[in-house]
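Could you help me review a protein record that somebody else here produced? Do not assume that whoever made the record got everything right. The record follows directly below this note.
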Amino acid sequence: MGRGRIEHKKIENKVNRQVTFSKRRTGLFKKATELSVLCDAQIAIIVFSGDRPDKLYEFASPGQRIGKILERYQSMVAPPPGGLHREAQSAYHEVQKLQAKCEALQRTQRNLLGEDLEPLSIKELHALEKQIEVSLAQTRLRKTQVVNERMESLRKQERHLGEINKKLKMKKMEIEAEGEAYHALWNTYNASASAGTNFPLQPTHPNLMECEMAEPVLEMGYPQNHYVREEGTTSRANNVVDELNFIQGWHC
C-alpha cells in the first residue's frame, strides 16, 4: 500500500521546529548549489527564522555575491529609483502649463470683447488697444480683397453675357435679313404672276425648300377660268396653268 499524503502544518514544539528549520535550510542550500553547478544558474536565497527574526541566512551561487544578484533582479523587475516620481512630476508640470495657457487665452478673448478690463493696467490697456487696431486693419484688408475678388468675378460674368448677347443680336439680324429677302422675292413673283408672265423662281436659300406655303400660294394665285374669261385665249390660260403647276412642285 502506498504512502499517504503528509499534511504540512506548523510545528508547535519550539525545539523540534528549530531542528527542522536547520535541517531543511541546509538541504535547500545544498539543492541550490547543485542546481547552480549543474545548470550554470545564478541563485540567491534569503531566509529569516521565525524564532529568531534578527538572524539572517543567505545563499549565493558559487563565485557570486548575493548583492550583485539582487541588483540584477531589481534592474529587471523594479523601475529605476524615482523614475515614476519624475514622470509624474513632469506630467503635472505640463498640465499646469496647459492650464495657464488656456486661462490666458480665455482672459485675452474676454478683453478683446471688452470684458474684465478693470484689472488691467494702463500699459496692458495700451497693448490691448494696439492689438485691436492691428486686428481691425487686417479685417478691413481681407474685406477689401474679398470685395475686389467678387467684383472681378461679376465683371467676367458681365463680359461673358455681353458676348452672348452680341451673338444673339447678330443671329437675329441674319434671320431678319433672310426674311426680308424672302418677302422681296415673293412680292416679285406675285407681281410677275399678276402681269401674266412666267418668272423662273429659283430658291436661293436651302430653308426655302422646307417651308410650308401650300395655302398662301393657292390663295394668292389666279384661277384658270379667270384668265380664260378675261382674255378668251388658250395660250394665256396655258401659261397660268404652267405657273400654278410650278408653284405646286416647289411646295413641300
